[in-house]
């Protein structure tokens, strides 16, 4: 661990939280801006969706490599560099001469976002001991929840004021502030860890990134509609080939890129699945609940209430959830997952508007009371020296399960209707609840209780 003054630790956390606020806006804003940008820029209209797909795919591809690199370099400098990439690409995206240039810039922005996410987690885990991480991730949950809930509204407001370019400029400006918070005077120490004796497994990290990026992009494209079938199928074959090569590479290297020892920790693995299930329920719910309301004759005001019930709790409850998690994290997360599954099941047998409102409120409450809790519980098991890699692997698992859930639900919704799509997300939540129940035991200490000492040569502050 690196010993910093309270003021500088808070500054590290503030910079990470400021950067975290950019991610939901970058995703929801880009999604909202796709139609207008496609109409306003020269280039094939088919490139429009790739404004989002390129960002998500490169983020997934670079996340593990960014996490491992952050642990081996000056963490604050790596984090600041990622934010500067996001800031510069945000400005250039607003000035893009055509759709091909915009897609390329969004791909680079995805790499920068991976550096921000991995670098921010790496430096936070390096200065906050395991006992304080649950409280810290309560703040993270509050920021992410609030940004996610307000993201669509902010994006639409920015487009109304300045058109689609402003949707890319504003998140870039926020990222620039996060970089300034770590590079400004008086500057923070670099938080550079000791260089491991083993050589870094670059081949494994690259293969893992390519496999995840190909799979995430294929599921994002989906099947049917205007997308040729060979597009997602080809990407899935690429993912399978990379995964096969990855297994062969990881068997031969002394220090594999994928921290398999973390995956062997039952709590880490179970909470990663849990947070992926929650995110899957959220992204599916944002699509399904409004459609169910439309089928039941709810007007615009009813749809607004539905979305508010689903998202507002995530803006006000995470800090309270962090307090509950000090004693009851396991039953809180397990109970919330089970409640989401039951709610999805109830909507299979009733189509009354009151049931829809109650269901949205129940799911929103479950999401708000668990926002950031699985992250804090899982990352409490990660040694500080490997915070970037541990957080990156956790994020990759969450993104993969979320994308898989959304893809499966979209396919079922097309065939059987929106309620059936919600049943897919509910099934994933039930599976995650059973896994968490059987994989964790209260009071079991994790490996992070044996935290490595502060590397020699780093200036400590009391």
Short overview:
With 462 residues, this protein is mainly alpha-helical. 77% of the residues lie in helices and 0% in strands.
Description:
The chain has 462 residues and is mainly alpha-helical. The chain has helices at residues 6-20, 22-40, 50-72, 75-94, 99-127, 130-162, 164-183, 202-221, 230-252, 260-263, 266-295, 300-311, 313-316, 318-346, 353-370, 373-379, 387-416, 418-439. Helix 6 runs antiparallel to helix 7 (164-183), helix 11 packs antiparallel against helix 12 (300-311) and helix 11 runs parallel beside helix 17 (387-416). The two termini are 13 Å apart.
Jot down its keywords.
0% strand, 77% helix, mainly alpha, 462 residues, disordered C terminus
- Total number of helical segments? 18
Q: What general outline do the C-alpha atoms trace?
A: globular
Mean pLDDT: 82
- Rg is 21 Å
Helix content: over 70%
Structural class: mainly alpha
Q: Into which percentage range does the β-strand content fall?
A: under 5%
Low-pLDDT residue intervals, each spanning 5 or more residues: 443-462
Give the distance, in angstroms, between the N- and C-terminal Cα atoms. Answer: 13 Å
Output the helix-strand order: HHHHHHHHHHHHHHHHHH
Number of separate strands: 0
Please summarize the sheet with the most strands.
Answer: none
């Amino acid at each position: 661990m690196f010993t910093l003054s309270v003021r500088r630790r808070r500054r590290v956390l503030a910079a990470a939280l400021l950067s975290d606020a950019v991610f939901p806006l970058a995703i929801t804003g880009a999604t909202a801006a796709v139609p207008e940008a496609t109409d306003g820029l020269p280039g094939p209209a088919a490139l429009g969706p790739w404004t989002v797909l390129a960002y998500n795919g490169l983020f997934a591809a670079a996340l593990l490599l960014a996490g491992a690199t952050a642990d081996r370099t000056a963490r604050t400098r790596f984090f600041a560099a990622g934010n500067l990439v996001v800031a510069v690409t945000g400005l250039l995206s607003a000035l893009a001469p055509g759709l091909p240039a915009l897609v390329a810039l969004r791909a680079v922005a995805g790499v920068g976002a991976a550096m921000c996410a991995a670098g921010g987690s790496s430096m936070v885990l390096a200065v906050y001991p395991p006992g304080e991480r649950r409280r810290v991730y309560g703040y993270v949950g509050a920021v992410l929840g609030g940004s996610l809930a307000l993201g669509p509204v902010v994006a639409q407001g920015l487009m109304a004021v300045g058109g689609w370019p402003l949707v890319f400029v504003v998140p870039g400006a926020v990222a620039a502030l996060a970089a300034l918070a770590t590079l400004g005077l008086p500057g923070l120490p670099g938080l550079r860890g000791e260089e491991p004796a083993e050589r870094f497994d670059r081949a494994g990290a690259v293969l893992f990134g390519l496999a995840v990026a190909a799979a995430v992009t294929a599921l994002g494209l989906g099947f049917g509609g205007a997308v040729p079938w060979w597009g997602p199928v080809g990407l899935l074959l690429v993912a399978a080939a990379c995964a096969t090569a990855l297994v062969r590479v990881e068997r031969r290297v002394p220090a594999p890129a994928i921290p398999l020892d973390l995956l062997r920790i039952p709590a880490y693995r179970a909470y990663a699945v849990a947070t992926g299930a929650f995110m899957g329920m959220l992204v599916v719910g944002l699509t399904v609940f409004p459609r169910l309301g439309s089928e039941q004759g709810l007007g615009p005001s009813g749809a607004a209430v539905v979305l508010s019930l689903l998202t507002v709790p995530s803006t006000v409850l995470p800090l309270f959830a962090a307090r509950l998690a000090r004693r009851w994290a396991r039953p809180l997360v397990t109970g919330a997952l089970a409640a989401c599954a039951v709610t999805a099941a109830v909507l299979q047998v009733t189509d009354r508007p009151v049931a829809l409102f109650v269901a949205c409120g129940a799911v929103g409450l479950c999401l708000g009371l668990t926002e950031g809790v699985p992250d804090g519980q899982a990352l409490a098991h990660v040694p500080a020296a490997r915070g970037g890699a541990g957080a990156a692997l956790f994020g990759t698992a969450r993104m993969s399960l979320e994308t898989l859930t959304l893809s499966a639900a979209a396919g079922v919704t097309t065939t059987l209707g929106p309620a059936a799509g919600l049943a897919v997300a509910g099934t994933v939540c039930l599976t995650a609840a059973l896994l968490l129940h059987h994989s964790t035991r209260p009071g079991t200490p994790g490996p992070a209780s044996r935290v490595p000492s502060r590397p020699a040569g780093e200036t400590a502050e009391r």
